[in-house]
Structure formats: structure tokens, C-alpha cells
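Project outcomes to date are best conveyed with an example. Our students and postdoctoral researchers have been running inverse folding experiments weekly, and each run begins with a structure described purely in C-alpha cells. The record below, which covers 276 residues, was selected by the lab manager from last quarter's runs and is presented without edits.
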């Protein structure tokens, strides 16, 4: 059975994939990003190539390169680097899982396939099992985000008996607002010591989140806000997503300052204006 260096817990940053104004990956700032997370935010575990990282908008080659860069830059700085390897194709998912093991990642996670969907728990577990088997030495996590996948199988149902079928299973990232389902996951799996990570950020910094939701909020806006807060140029998203508007950026900056999130932070080299 896979055994992580220590249980994945606490704050785990879902990393953004920085891009240039032309939509190419900006690898040059990932080292700076690592230092920002560790030194300024005290975050030492990360989740790479997930929703926030636009993982499913990247090619397999790009996903491999992004994973490699985070593992390399995080060496001796980060505690755990978990790579999301989910894909619509089982073969691609397995390729990414094997690659994550080869580069020294600390775990892999998989989203449910969302075009030709698994219609019940057993079908989903069969898919996950095949991906996990491609990296048998790595802890395996399920990425539960039904609002995007359309796969409505409850996490609590999925966890029942899953480790008997997937020995490397260590927990899940729960990105849903069904707190009853999440509560049952916690209550019924206390003895198994699963890592149960709650991934709905909207329950934090609520005044700001409520404000930006009214303006329209998603991955594009997250990249703009992260650029404002960190000073690291995260760039625009990749199509079909559209970059955040100047109006959104200006309003978000004013609100962040009013909440003291930008009290001493300034943008570097006009990094936001270059693509807004």
C-alpha cells in the first residue's frame, strides 16, 4: 500500500498555471510562485493541474512539463506535490500517472470522466482503479467536483469499500457544497485516516468572495486576483476562457485594499496591465 511521507492535511494550494499573454505556459515564474506559497503564505503542499490550474485545457505534453517544473522547483521546499492526472481518456490518465511517479511526485488525483460518464459507483471505481494501478507506489486521491463533471455519485457512497479495490487510495478532494455528504465522509471514515480535503474556497474570506461573485468569478478572475495579491504575473487563461476585464480588476483591487489584503503589495513590472 502506498504510504505518503505524512498525511496530506492542512492548507493545500490548488496552483494556477502561469501563462504569457499569448497563452503559452510561463514556466519562468513557477520558482517564484513556490517561494511565495512557502515563505509568504506558509503553504507547503500543492495540487497541480487541477481546475484552477486549467489542467484539462493543457495538452498531455504541457501537463507533464508543468508537473516536472513544480516538482523540481519544490524540491526541499514543499512537503507534498500532488498531481492531478484525470483525463477523458483512460490511456492519457495512465500515462500522466506513470509520469508523476517517475518525476517524484508525492501523490496523484483523478477527476471523474465527464463526457462518457460512469453511471454508478462500481463503474467509476473501475476507472479509478486502472489509473491508480499505473502508479502503484503513489498515494491516490479522488477529485470530487460534481458541478463540473456532472457525475453525481455521492462521495460517501464512493468511499465505502474503495480501499479494498484501490489499495493506494488515501482520500479525496471534496469540491462540492453538499455538506451532508462531506460530513458523512468524515463521520464514517474516522478509523481509516483518509485525507478529506474540503475544496470549496468560497467559505473563506466571504466578504471578498461575495463581492467578486456579483461581478462574475471563475478561473480567469482567480488568475487576475492572484496577480494582484502576489505580484507574480499569472497571465490570462487559455481559450475558451476569456481574460478578466479591466473593470473587474479595478473593482477587485479596490475591494482588496479596503479589506487590507493589498496594504503593502504592489504589482511588479506592470504585470497585470500587460494582459488586461
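After processing, the design step wrote out the following sequence:
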Amino acid at each position: 500500500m502506498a504510504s505518503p511521507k505524512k498525511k496530506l492535511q492542512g492548507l493545500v494550494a490548488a496552483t494556477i498555471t502561469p501563462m504569457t499573454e499569448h497563452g503559452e505556459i510561463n514556466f519562468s515564474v513557477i520558482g517564484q510562485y513556490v517561494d511565495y506559497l512557502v515563505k509568504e503564505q506558509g503553504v507547503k503542499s500543492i495540487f497541480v493541474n487541477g481546475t484552477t490550474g486549467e489542467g484539462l485545457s493543457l495538452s498531455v505534453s504541457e501537463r507533464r512539463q508543468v508537473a516536472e517544473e513544480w516538482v523540481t522547483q519544490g524540491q526541499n521546499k514543499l512537503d507534498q506535490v500532488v498531481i492531478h492526472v484525470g483525463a477523458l481518456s483512460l490511456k492519457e490518465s495512465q500515462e500522466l500517472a506513470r509520469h508523476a511517479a517517475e518525476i517524484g511526485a508525492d501523490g496523484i488525483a483523478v477527476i471523474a470522466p465527464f463526457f462518457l460518464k460512469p453511471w454508478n459507483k462500481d463503474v467509476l471505481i473501475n476507472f479509478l482503479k486502472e489509473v491508480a494501478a499505473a502508479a502503484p507506489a503513489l498515494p491516490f486521491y479522488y477529485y470530487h467536483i460534481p458541478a463540473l463533471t456532472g457525475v453525481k455519485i455521492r462521495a460517501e457512497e464512493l468511499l465505502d469499500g474503495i480501499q479494498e479495490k484501490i489499495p493506494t487510495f488515501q482520500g479525496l478532494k471534496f469540491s462540492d457544497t453538499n455538506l451532508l455528504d462531506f460530513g458523512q465522509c468524515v463521520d464514517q471514515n474516522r478509523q481509516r485516516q483518509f485525507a478529506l480535503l474540503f475544496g470549496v474556497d468560497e467559505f473563506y474570506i466571504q466578504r471578498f468572495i461575495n463581492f467578486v461573485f456579483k461581478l462574475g468569478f471563475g478561473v480567469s478572475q482567480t488568475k487576475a486576483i492572484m496577480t494582484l495579491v502576489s505580484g507574480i504575473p499569472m497571465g490570462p487563461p487559455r481559450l475558451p476562457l476569456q481574460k478578466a476585464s479591466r473593470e473587474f480588476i479595478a473593482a477587485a483591487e479596490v475591494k482588496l485594499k479596503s479589506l487590507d489584503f493589498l496594504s503593502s503589495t504592489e504589482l511588479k513590472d506592470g504585470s497585470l496591465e500587460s494582459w488586461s
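The chain has a mean pLDDT of 90. The chain has eleven helices and seven strands. The training component of this project remains on track.
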